[in-house]
Give the backbone structure.
Amino acid sequence: MLSKILFCASLAAALVWGQEPAGRGGPGGRGRGRGGPQPQATQEVKPGLFMITGAGANTEVRVTSEGLIVVDGKLPSEQNYNALMEQIKMISPLPVKYLIVTHHHQDHTGNNDRFIAAGVQILAQENLNKNLVNYQANPKPASATITYDKEHTLTLGGVSVEAHYFGRAHTSGDTVVYFPDLKVVAVSDIVTTGTTGPLADYAGGGSFLDWPKTMDGILSLDFDTAIPGNGGPITRADVQAYKTKVETFVARAREAVKQGVPKDQLMMQIKTDDLGWKPRVPNVDLFYAELTK
Ligand SMILES: [Zn+2]
């Protein structure tokens, strides 16, 4: 399973695995299908900040007087890119200056090449480009043009947008995007919504054990609204509650290992029915390894 493409776009609880190039139907899409363009829609989160749903993960658009700072660029295809640009043009006629990509999965990075061709600088945490090396997506997303280690602030038209790396969770290169003047944070797939549980992409450096600590970093920011990778905006209390649930899951997993539950029974033995979701563990070996370290 390690070598398979990893999508995190699906709202379905089922993890979507597949080698098929984007543009063909894949399993787990719950009839949404990945063929052809998927509808996109824009909503205002706060004045000057918009989110665009559909065709992959949520995209955020921060408007400034000198251009736009965009977060995550949808699943790869000319149609998805063109439809995204149509949504963006309805928000503002100003050009996109920066794209921040929150991790390497192609529902966030799929159109990096098209943004680069349009003259857009792409910012990512430095592990994103490393994770792309072995990422077997077809087409493989283009690398970010600017990378950072812990923190990087973009300033445009008097507006600051901060990229933060707080550690491993969904992958080893998860960027949290903070809009300080609006008290909004984009948390990407560090927080899932509905019945979709958290996914630690171990092949991409993800970690359930580090996840709560990474969320402490998010909670150290002064925000009242969070935008997850999929689904609508949530509150600070929602983020806090999500962290508690991940902690509960990890504590139960640790206890199960301590009690001697063998690896092949681990996931069955951990109680999750009161969490509202099932954690997605694509590699139990590596999960077990970090629990016994
Ligand atoms: Zn993802």
Observations:
- Helices lie at 78-91, 106-109, 112-117, 126-133, 211-219, 236-258, 266-269, 284-292.
- Residues 8, 103, 105, 170, 189 surround zinc ion (CB under 6 Å).
- Residues 71 and 100 are 5 Å apart (CA to CA).
- The radius of gyration is 18 Å.
